[in-house]
# Entry
Amino acid sequence: MTDTPPAHSEGSSANNRAWIRQAVDFGALVAFAGAYVFLRVRGLDGREAMVQATWVLVAASAIALIVGYAVERRLAPLPLLAGGFALIFGGLTLFFHDPSLLKIKLSIQNGLLAAVLLGSLPLGKYPFKYLLGDSIKVTDDAWRGLTLRYGLYFATIAVANEIVWRTQTDDTWVAFRGFIWIAACVFGLLQIPYILKHLIRDEEPGPVSPDSGL
# Structure
């Protein structure tokens, strides 16, 4: 006789993976910010501190992708996109010794996501469903609503980042990046009631954050 695991155990396992994925995704950002603050305290100017902290970002992003694969046995689309951007623009920052390349990465990544999500709405397509993989299962109407909400969020972040990095100091931009992390967490949590209302299966979703690290 084969024992069948209870349904709530499968839901709990999925939620645990979601929380682990969030922790891993944000680990690179925390590591980068910590390295930047440490280097500034040691006396490096903002530009040099950001370049040196990028080494930490690149290493942490690579580790995040590896751990994410180990947890899920696959590379989820959204973390893979964010991690790939971090590795590419982090590598360019180190190669050209120019932190503005790392700053503009946030604008390009979020601007691209906003264009894809908002541009898909008139076509009745929901690429956000693919980006999240099997994190949640909701109705098509809910996917449309989430696509609109997250598309507007990404567009707002892209515009705000352009204003901040072009007009403010390196210290201010790093602080702004930390604020965006908090805003992403709050935004993701605020979507849970909407997701629960349109959930297809009987399980409580984990946090769905629009920010997957630096």
